Fold this sequence. Notes:
This protein is an alpha/beta fold. It has helices spanning 6-9, 15-28, 47-58, 71-85, 100-111, 127-134, 154-160, 183-194, 220-223, 255-266, 274-285, 289-309, 331-337, 342-352, 377-391; strands at residues 34-35, 94-97, 117-122, 138-143, 165-171, 200-204, 231-236, 249-252, 325-326, 355-356, 358-359, 369-372. The longest helix is centred in the last third of the chain and has 21 residues, at 289-309. It is globular, with a radius of gyration of 21 Å. Pyridoxal-5'-phosphate (PLP) binds next to helix 5.
Amino acid sequence: DIQLSHRVQKVKPSPTLAVTARAKELKAQGKDIIGLGAGEPDFDTPEHIKEAAIAAIRDGFTKYTAVDGTPGLKDAVIEKFRRDNALEYQPAQILVSSGGKQSFYNMAQALLNSGDEAIIAAPYWVSYPDMVLLADGKPVVIEAGIEQGFKITPEQLQAAITPQTRLVVLNSPSNPTGVAYTRAELAALGEVLRQHPKIVIASDDMYEHILWADEPFCNIVNACPELYERTVVMNGVSKAYSMTGWRIGYAGGPEKLIQSMKKIQSQSTSNPASISQAAAEAALRGDQSCIQEMLKAFKERHDFVVQRLNRIKGVHCLASQGAFYSFPDMSSAIDATGTENDVQFAEYLLNEAEVALVPGSAFGKPGYMRLSFATSLDNLREALDRLARLLGEE
Ligand code: PLP
């Protein structure tokens, strides 16, 4: 029998992928499943981005690159941070990785020692706690349910901080809630963080461009510039340009930490795919109007989904400001169906309504479900009709 490491036994496989796999299995059996589990835009990668990749292949740009990204892409990232976020970085402060997920993984590995605490708000993106565990860190979860708009308060943040706190993770707009913090809310959190100079902040801005709030996008550094020296801003091309399969993410932050993240990457994966880097450079430098088209569709779907969900019995859904997810509280509906918890309820919905949702417990919030609207309005209409028929409508 093979003895596995304690490390690998501390984590679980990504649960969002598990639901997608189960839905696929049922589809293969001929069932007419509507999958609302996807964590990726349903649009094709824009043509000019694909063309840049094809040109890169033709030009023989198919070899190792610098570990931390090509000079051209790093320069495009620096310009992007300047243009969209009013943030200035030197090349040594930028690391390009194989997806935003690897950026975060590198950071956790470079920053955390055994027992170091990382503060994460629940509901959270599924991978944060597990990547902290893989670095032998300790996830410290702050609960932020629907009653507080899925946002942590400065008081909660203050109460969660201990001498062991090394990292605070912020993700706005959020996966899985779609909720975005306002500048004032971020400034209030920043006020707490200012008092704790040893804490590093990770600002995961992955959904920056999928945002329809009243005010423009703002992250913790914009709201509290003093935190620049110890904040890692993470972003990528997966969601903004519908490029999930290309695997390009990037981070900007303090040189010492970024260089340490680069060292981890140099001894694990080396550079991200050269061809993907060429495509990402075209995405960041090229016409940005492709983002607006996707944004318009997501907003329209959001409005439809929230309005329909709130008419279903036992379902309470908050209107949100971005990303492509709704995160309704379905605890009353779960009770009414006699299923025991959200995981069983997800199975029940798959079997009885042929609709795939991800249980909230995957994101640290049992009793909720995540619905992805990265699918057509026709699909959403049909899925919500099915849910309404099964659960009843008010
Ligand atoms: N951060 C958040 C909040 C996400 O939802 C995701 C993807 O689902 C990522 C980061 C990582 O995306 P990628 O690794 O495709 O860049």
